[in-house]
Amino acid sequence: MNWMKYTHNYTCDPVNPEKSEPSKPAASPGSASGPREKQTGGKSPAKSNIHWADQMAGEIRARLENDAGLRAIVERQGLLIYDEKTPSGAIHIGSGRGWVIADAVRRSLTALGLPARFVLSADDYDPYDRPNSDLGGTDWSRYLGVPFSEIPSPVPGFASFGDYYFQQATAHFPALGIECSFESTARNYKSGVFNAVIRTVLDNAGRVQEIYRELYGEASEAAKKLPFNMLCRNCGKIATTVADRWDPGREQVSYVCRDGVVAWASGCGHEGADSPYDGGGKFPWKVEWAAKWPARGVIVEFGGKDHFSKGGARTMANRIAVDVLHYPPPYPSHGYATGPGYEFFQVGGAKMSTSKGTGMSFAEGVEFFPPELLRYLLLRSKPNAVVDFDPQQNDIILLA
């Protein structure tokens, strides 16, 4: 593919972390410091009338043109726009904003002739940490600490607890015009997608712990243990194990399953050593975010502003990607700089929570709104603007 034939009017720094100053990352249109001013006596460039999705697509294309490594990834597997969601309960409508943003940018990239595709992963290897308010009958508390992929579905016809809640949301993608492929993080662990990255992280566990200390202080609990959570072979829980030693020769992790690791689940006391590969365990989430990028070849991944805040999950993931995995963090990040996250979708001024079951679910939102109006509501504002819909005020009439 001849990347340079795609001429454009955008200016963007390459994403190469090696070309960034870790302590003072270069500014770019996708970075937290905003667009670089042109050298015009200090005056800012004229405001563009280009839609934000098209502008993002231009910035992503510029990165590819300036980075042979990223071009090689795209030529091998396509331009992957990635997102992920833990299916801990009814997924709220705020998550839909990220999905519509990803789909809009995919469309703009495709219009430029780039082989963009959007993939959404269910983070179903995460542990169950809170009984759901919408479920009755079965005592679900007995599954606390067990991965969502290993818990039976509350409703027949679904592969697991996680699959049930994930499909509640994704079944509505066609109505919103979202073109997306789906995958399971648990299945990726079990099929070996993360094996090479697991080895790299465990071999460099000291550096990961150092990054935790640099960002969160010497007292950080994560800085005192291996950055990997083993699946207990005795009780099947993944939240109650502590990994204490990595044996690179035998490629095994020693661990103990005990009480006190988390407040909401009890361990069984089992001690053992096992392979971390092929579903033997999982990364803590902040480490897992970084691990997915090279494992899957991610080029673009957006996220809510809470994750992109200073010192947040994206900050940690970027540091690991650059310092340990030597992979350029995906757009809108640039080296250590996180770039901007998108603002919240609020209902009546309230932020929503999946696990707490508060606010409007994504499925309810699609059923409440005409799908075309919901997509318009999510796309009409720039990602850095809050969307606040109040059904009590007949806001839907104003959209029409």
Using brief descriptors, characterize the structure shown.
three-stranded antiparallel β-sheet; single chain; alpha/beta; 400 residues
Task: Produce the secondary structure layout.
Layout (H helix, E strand, L loop, with lengths): L51 H15 L1 H10 L1 E7 L8 H18 L4 E7 L38 H10 L2 H4 L4 E4 H6 L4 H9 L1 H12 L12 E2 L10 E7 L4 E6 L13 E4 L6 E2 L2 H12 L1 E3 L12 H13 L19 E3 L14 H7 L2 H9 L7 E3 L5 H5 L1
Parallel strand pairs: 1-2, 1-9, 2-3, 10-11
Antiparallel strand pairs: 4-8, 5-6, 6-7
Notes on the structure:
46% of the residues are buried. The protein starts with 51 loop residues before the first helix and ends with a helix. The protein contains 13 helices and eleven strands. Helix 8 (205-216) packs antiparallel against helix 10 (313-325) and helix 9 packs across helix 10. It has 400 residues and is α/β, with parallel strands linked by helices. The longest helix is centred in the first third of the chain and has 18 residues, at 94-111. The strands form four sheets. The chain has a four-stranded parallel β-sheet with strand order 3-2-1-9. Strands 5-6-7 form a three-stranded antiparallel β-sheet, with no helix packed on it.
